[in-house]
Design goal:
With 128 residues, the chain is an all-beta fold. The chain has no helices and eleven strands.
């Protein structure tokens, strides 16, 4: 069982930056592919970014390419999402997710149904 806890959300102005963290407790996530999703009110949960368990492969939604960077530190059991040049449309609850993927060090996953474990979410609000 993996427990994930997000942190780092908040209220910022357009153009500002935030760094979200996703800390895993109770178990190492070094063999887990991980990802970030967000969900705005009245909308479905949407893919933001994903990273393989080795960190060698990453993938981004078109809407965040060039602005967001996903990374992970397996020694700290933590994944990050650096968000720069934030826009009002980035406003949402951000969730981290993990999927056990021991045989595929370069694979990442972009669908919410691909993941087995989820955090509780952290709110990001970007004012114009």
């Amino acid at each position: 069982q993996v427990q994930l806890v997000e942190s780092g959300g908040g209220l910022v102005q357009a153009g500002d930056s935030l760094r979200l963290s996703c800390a895993a407790s109770r178990r190492t996530v070094s063999r887990y592919a991980m990802g970030w999703f967000h969900q705005a009110p009245g909308k479905e949960r949407q893919f933001v970014a994903a990273i393989s368990w080795s960190g060698s492969s990453t993938h981004y939604a078109d809407s965040v390419k060039g602005r967001f960077t996903i990374s992970r530190d397996n020694a700290k059991n933590t994944m990050y999402l650096q968000m720069n040049s934030l826009k009002p449309e980035d406003t949402a609850v951000y969730y981290c997710a993990a999927k056990f993927s021991p045989d595929s060090s370069n694979w990442y996953y972009t669908g919410p149904n691909d993941y087995n474990y989820w955090g509780q979410g952290t709110q990001v609000t970007v004012s114009s």
